[in-house]
């Protein structure tokens, strides 16, 4: 059995307000081409299909088209689970007839004990769940943590093992010893979501989702595929892609296939003068998502607007050396007392943001100050 392991698509996700649907469609096409080139027997998606439990209409349309292409047009069986970002109730809609085209989407704990058998492999699709679901399913009030729940879950799964086949677990949790990045929602409360790696030893391979880096866990038989795209600055050095898993041998053979983003996340560094110089910006991909490290200390009027005219996808600006005003621009305490309220607001805004107020913002301030003045006069 040869399959492709991917996860954490987060369809509909935005990065600092920028829509990623175009990037996600491009990454999916690369995944599909890898699946075809590697002649896999199935595609496994280990949770977080969507970024939100109530995804936008556009996100649903994109995912639906992806399913049509890989499952109906290319005839790949798809084995998927819901993750912590997904709404299991909403995803479950249509499940009974999805299986008619070999699209297996498990969203409930009880479905995890019905293995999907393909060739020499049994797939156990375990969606993200909270301890209370296991407590109710096993009718065991002592189950309070995910570790306790997983012990019972695996014990039950083992009763369905066909010893003549390989066993693959598809799951979406934080496995002990893994490393997180900034883009993963922090689920841990008192260690509730931590699954010990030893619990997973019963399986020949564990296809994990939830953490966005393929190297988040150092284990032979359990792997995170990572997300197909970079979702935060902390992932800037990560290679994104999918695992190709072959269960024909005694130990599964694994090969990572890289995906190249339509637009990458990169960092640039320099003074404001450098950044707006053609000699500087013509040497980089201005369409990428950029984190700017600014070396200037002084306030630069209208800085962001000027930078965005050149770099349309700035996701953050970091001042490397803080902000230091020149003596001639420094306003001493005694001078602040002489400024009118409107001037105080303008100066505060400029010092905090590095930009000047727009005409509309000035009108709002003027209206609000006038209202405050009227209230004060009425007292």
Question: How would you explain this protein's 3D organization?
Answer:
The chain folds into three domains: 258 residues, Purple Acid Phosphatase, chain A, domain 2, CATH 3.60.21.10; 68 residues, no CATH class; 48 residues, no CATH class. Helix content is 31%, strand content 21%. It is built from twelve helices and 18 strands. α1 packs parallel to α2 and α11 packs across α12. The chain is elongated. It starts with a strand and ends with a helix. About 5% of the residues have low confidence. Heterodimer of SbcC and SbcD. InterPro entries: Calcineurin-like_PHP, DNA_Repair-Maintenance_Comp, Metallo-depent_PP-like, Mre11_N, SbcD, SbcD_C.
- Give the strand content: 15-25%
Q: Structural class of the secondary elements?
A: alpha/beta
Number of strands: 18
CATH C-level class of the largest domain is Alpha Beta
Poorly predicted parts:
186-192, 324-334
Give the overall silhouette.
elongated
Mean pLDDT: 88
Can you tell me the CATH superfamily of the largest domain? Metallo-dependent phosphatases
Q: SSE order, as H and E?
A: EEEHEHEHHEEEHHEEEEEEEEHHEHEHHH
Helical content (DSSP H or I, runs of 4+): 25-40%
The CATH architecture category of the largest domain equals 4-Layer Sandwich
**Tally of alpha and pi helices:** 12
Report the major sheet. 6 strands, mixed
Number of domains: 3
CATH fold description of the largest domain? Purple Acid Phosphatase, chain A, domain 2
Radius of gyration: 26 Å
Straight-line distance between termini: 81 Å
The side-by-side strand order for the widest beta sheet comes to: 6-5-4-1-14-15
């Amino acid at each position: 059995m040869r399959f492709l392991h991917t996860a954490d698509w987060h369809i509909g996700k935005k990065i600092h307000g920028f829509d990623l649907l175009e990037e996600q469609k491009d990454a999916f096409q690369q995944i599909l081409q890898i699946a075809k080139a590697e002649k896999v027997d199935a595609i496994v998606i280990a949770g977080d299909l969507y970024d939100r439990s109530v995804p936008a209409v556009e996100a649903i349309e994109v995912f639906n088209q992806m399913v049509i292409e890989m499952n109906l047009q290319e005839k790949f069986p798809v084995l998927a689970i819901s993750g912590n970002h997904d709404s299991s109730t909403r995803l479950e809609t249509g499940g009974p007839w999805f299986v008619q085209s070999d699209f297996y989407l498990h969203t409930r704990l009880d479905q995890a004990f019905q293995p999907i058998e393909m060739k020499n492999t049994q797939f156990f699709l375990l969606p993200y769940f909270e301890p209370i679901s296991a407590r109710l399913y096993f009718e065991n009030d002592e189950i309070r943590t995910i570790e306790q729940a997983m012990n019972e879950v695996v014990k039950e799964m083992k009763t369905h093992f066909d010893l003549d086949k390989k066993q693959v677990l598809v799951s979406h949790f934080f496995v002990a010893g893994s490393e997180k990045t900034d883009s993963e929602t922090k689920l841990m409360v008192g260690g509730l979501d931590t699954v010990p790696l030893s619990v997973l030893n019963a399986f020949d391979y564990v296809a994990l989702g939830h953490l966005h880096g393929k190297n988040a866990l150092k284990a032979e038989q359990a792997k995170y595929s990572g997300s197909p795209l970079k979702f935060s600055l902390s992932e800037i050095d990560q290679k994104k892609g999918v695992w190709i898993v072959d269960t024909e041998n005694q130990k599964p053979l694994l090969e990572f296939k890289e995906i190249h983003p339509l637009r990458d996340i990169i960092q640039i560094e320099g003074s404001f003068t450098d950044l707006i110089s053609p000699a500087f910006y013509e040497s980089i991909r201005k369409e990428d998502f950029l984190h700017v490290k600014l070396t200037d200390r002084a306030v630069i009027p209208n800085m962001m607007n000027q930078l965005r005219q050149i770099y349309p996808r700035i996701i953050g600006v970091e001042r490397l050396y803080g902000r230091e005003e020149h003596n001639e621009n420094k306003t001493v305490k005694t001078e602040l007392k002489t400024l009118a309220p409107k001037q105080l607001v303008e100066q505060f805004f400029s010092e905090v943001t590095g930009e000047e107020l727009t005409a509309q913002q000035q009108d709002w301030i003027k209206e609000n100050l006038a209202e405050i003045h009227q209230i004060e006069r009425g007292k």
